[in-house]
């Protein structure tokens, strides 16, 4: 009897190990396996629920292969869901990049890169997104989606983001600062006023984005401490004495179909989404990138 029990346990363990081994490759999301080396496309992971997501919708994507801003992701997810309902749009949240294919992207008008970090998409998925965006669609990039971990994707880093992240303060990390609105006539800044104050983890960039971008808001560096003496090669994170020298929100239209892109450096924690101005900017950004609140071309140039 003892022998039978031991044998049964061995057989059961072997079966379970075999099942685990069979499932393991599906977890690498089509990226190169760190141990075995092969690269392959993972199967779609949207499931039955995806069939009931209406068209058009907002895709809220938060895969992270570098730093993960858990609270910011959760706060933005909830805020965008509420905004989507107000806009009369559906929404779908995922952290699985297999959704970046022509068939499934066709359901969406806007993709939100919600604190996405690292090399999250394969080259095939990047190409699928670029083709989708070129149809006149929109994208909103939130906080971590503008850090230094995206430079492997040239189109995203140069054409969509347009600035290279340096660091953020750590003395302390989260600080209240004055944000000055630099373009009050742009639809993304509608109803915001000339300035507001909010606490966040404030990014510094090598330089402002190029002239093809419309800078919407900047930081008043005199209202917080732009210093990081804890880590990194650069401790003094000041970009300049005027808010225009340190932009944190900007927009761009790209291509013949005027695809719309907005980046906001705000959004590390869920607290950001409890600030009325931050919520209003996010709502405006989603409406503008979805081309729901203005005439064709408005806000696409200086």
Offer a concise description of the structure.
By secondary structure, the protein is of the alpha/beta class. It has six helices and eleven strands.
Describe the structure.
By secondary structure, this protein is an alpha/beta fold. It has a single domain, classed as Rossmann fold (3-Layer(aba) Sandwich), CATH 3.40.50.880. The chain is built from six helices and eleven strands. The strands form two sheets. The protein has a nine-stranded mixed β-sheet with strand order 2-1-3-4-11-10-9-6-7, with helices on both faces. β1, α2 and β2 form a beta-alpha-beta unit. α2 packs across α6. The longest helix has 22 residues. It is globular and about 50 Å long. The N terminus is likely disordered.
Please identify, by name, the CATH architecture: 3-Layer(aba) Sandwich
Catalogue the unreliable spans. Answer: 1-40
Strand order of the largest sheet: 2-1-3-4-11-10-9-6-7
Shape: globular
Beta-strand content: 15-25%
The CATH class designation is Alpha Beta
What's the average pLDDT?
85
Topology summary:
Elements: H1 2-23, E1 57-61, H2 70-87, E2 90-94, H3 102-105, E3 108-114, H4 123-133, E4 138-142, H5 154-161, E5 165-167, E6 175-181, E7 195-200, E8 204-205, E9 214-220, E10 247-254, E11 259-264, H6 276-289
Parallel strand pairs: 1-2, 1-3, 3-4, 4-11
Antiparallel strand pairs: 5-8, 6-7, 6-9, 9-10, 10-11
Helix pairs in contact: 2-6
């Amino acid at each position: 009897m003892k022998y039978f029990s031991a044998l049964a346990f061995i057989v059961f363990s072997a079966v379970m190990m075999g099942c685990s081994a069979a499932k393991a490759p599906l977890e690498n999301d089509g990226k190169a396996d760190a141990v075995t080396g092969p690269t392959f496309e993972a199967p779609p992971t949207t499931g039955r629920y995806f069939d009931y997501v209406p068209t058009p919708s907002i895709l809220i994507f938060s895969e992270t292969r570098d730093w993960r801003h858990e609270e910011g992701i959760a706060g933005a997810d909830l805020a965008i869901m509420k905004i989507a309902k107000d806009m009369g749009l559906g929404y779908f949240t995922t952290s699985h990049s297999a959704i970046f294919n022509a068939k499934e992207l066709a359901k969406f008008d806007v993709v939100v890169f919600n604190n996405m970090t690292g090399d999250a998409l394969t080259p095939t998925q990047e190409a699928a997104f670029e083709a989708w965006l070129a149809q006149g669609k929109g994208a909103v990039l939130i906080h971590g989606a503008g850090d230094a971990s995206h430079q492997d994707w040239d189109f995203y880093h140069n054409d969509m983001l347009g600035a290279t992240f340096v660091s953020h303060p750590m003395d302390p990390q989260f600080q209240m600062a004055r944000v000055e609105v630099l373009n009050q006539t742009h639809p993304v800044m509608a109803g915001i006023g000339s300035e507001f104050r909010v606490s966040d983890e404030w990014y510094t960039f090598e330089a402002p984005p190029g002239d093809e971008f419309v800078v919407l808001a900047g930081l008043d560096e005199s209202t917080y401490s732009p210093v990081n003496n804890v880590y990194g090669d650069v401790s003094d994170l000041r970009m300049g004495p005027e808010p225009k020298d340190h932009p944190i929100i900007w927009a761009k239209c790209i291509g013949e179909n005027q695809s719309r892109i907005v980046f906001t450096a705000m959004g590390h924690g869920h607290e950001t989404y409890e600030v009325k101005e931050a919520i209003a900017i996010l709502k405006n950004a989603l409406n503008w990138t979805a081309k729901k609140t203005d005439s064709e071309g408005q806000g696409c140039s200086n």
